[in-house]
Design a protein that fits this description.
The chain is built from 14 helices and 13 strands. It has 409 residues and is an alpha/beta fold. Strand 3, helix 4 and strand 4 form a beta-alpha-beta unit. Helix 5 packs parallel to helix 6. The chain is globular, with a radius of gyration of 21 Å. The protein binds pyridoxal-5'-phosphate. Pyridoxal-5'-phosphate (PLP) binds next to helix 3.
């Protein structure tokens, strides 16, 4: 079998000389910002025979999947599945809700938050932005001050876990404040749902979007979304409500939820896989999955610090539990570091994204990879790689610190 080229090859010559991957050329471990490796159960579900979407079996499977989305999102709000990547759900939220001229407050503490503004603006928003350096998170009090100053803000958008920066925003406090001011909230919880508490009903998240390929442990290919009554109301009250479009959330409500007809052909095999991933998570129990993600994150942070590396987030209090972002050490080339980790030691990790390219690298611990064993493998591969790159790192320091900080995950 020919070797797959999944990532640009490292620029340095040395990394290419000792290739160690399995016979298919695939990495042995995928611990990135997502997608990450998935369970055998999910893979088997994906490979089930394709069903016609109005086969008597399929609508029941679809309904069961949206019911499980509500359970995993811990919400009584409607659940819909948008058939595209997670960003489709995020863009659809702006397209469906923003009325031209609406003042929209966008919170930016990383590349995904910053990037969201374009969707708001494209659909006619008058944009107000609160941006903080991308190693920090947004202060809820600053959000309150802006809402007071602006008066009539209709929409507040934010990211929960800023995956490219490895940081968390205080969604509970921020959404609480936004609701006090009568705004509807859009939360990019793409990487947080399934890995940490996200509570749309208690926190006031009107549109909550998750990606199956992050902490939910599934393959990419859909946006899992919950929508509150306030959000439906906002969509219906637009001067021209968005209908008859793949960006329309109202289509999902009015055709599927209310009439049992799909607006277009759903990706049936993706639904099988999402259903299986959600079932697996619910069998484990949400609390136990959250604890597993936190423990993996703690072990990972302890490991990288013990190697003498610095975490990217300004403080550990705001570090995400689904991904550990680490400052790129002086003189180390990001592509070379990741190239050696993958080709010599079989572990695929992520570099920076957007403005953060070349500043940091990231070890993802989400879904199936949020485990002690996976974190130890990533740390072992990382310290060996740093030594290969000529850095003065005592071999075993990171792994040993991780072992010391956590008993079992
Ligand atoms: C992964 C991710 C996205 C993008 O998801 P896609 O599936 O690529 O559309 C958006 N926001 C956050 C926070 C993410 O982690």
């Amino acid at each position: 079998m020919t070797k797959l080229e999944l990532e640009p090859r490292p620029s340095g010559g040395s990394a290419q000389s000792a290739v160690r991957v399995d016979s298919t050329g695939l990495p042995e471990f995928t611990m990135t910002g997502g997608p990450l490796e998935v369970s055998d159960r999910v893979l088997r579900a994906l490979s089930r025979q394709t069903l016609y979407h109005y086969d008597p079996l399929f609508p029941d499977i679809y309904r069961d999947t949206t019911k499980k989305i509500q359970e995993v999102f811990q919400t009584a709000n409607d659940a819909i599945i948008m058939h595209g990547e997670a960003v489709l759900g995020l863009e659809a939220a702006a397209a469906s809700m923003v009325e031209p001229g609406d003042t929209c407050l966008n919170l930016a503490s990383g590349p995904f938050g910053k990037g969201y503004a374009r969707h708001l603006v494209r659909h006619g928003a008058r944009l107000v932005e609160l941006e903080v350096p991308f190693n920090q998170s947004v202060e809820p009090d600053d959000v309150r001050r802006l809402l007071e100053r602006e008066g009539d803000v209709k929409v507040v958008s934010m990211v929960h876990s800023e995956t490219p920066a490895g940081t968390l925003n205080q969604v509970e406090q921020i959404c609480g404040i936004a609701k006090e001011f009568g705004a509807v909230t859009i939360v990019d919880a793409v990487s947080s749902v399934g890995g940490m508490q996200v509570r749309p009903d208690e926190w006031g998240i009107d549109i909550c979007v998750a990606g199956p390929q992050k902490c939910l442990g599934c393959t990419p290919g859909s946006a899992l979304v919950t929508v509150s009554d306030d959000a439906w109301e906002k969509m219906r009250s637009k001067s021209t409500p968005l209908r008859g479009s793949v960006l329309s959330m109202l289509d999902m409500k009015e055709r599927w939820i209310e009439n049992g007809r799909f607006p277009y052909t759903p990706m049936t095999n993706q639904i099988f896989a999402v259903n299986e991933a959600l079932t697996q998570l619910l069998e484990e129990g949400l609390e136990s999955a959250f604890a597993r993600h936190s423990a993996a994150a703690r072990a990972c942070r302890a490991g990288v610090k013990a190697m003498g590396l610095e975490l990217w987030p300004a403080s550990e209090d705001i570090a995400s539990t689904c991904v550990t972002a680490v400052k790129l050490p002086e003189g180390v080339d990001d592509g070379e570091l990741r190239g050696i980790m993958r080709t010599r030691y079989g572990v695929m990790i992520s570099g920076g994204h957007g403005d953060l390219i070349g500043k940091l690298f990231r070890i993802g611990h989400m879904g199936q990879t949020a485990r002690f064993s996976h974190v130890l493998v990533a740390l072992g591969a990382l310290e060996r790689t740093l030594v290969d790159l000529g850095l003065d790192v005592p071999l075993g320091a990171g792994v040993s610190a991780a072992i010391g900080c956590s008993t079992s995950v």
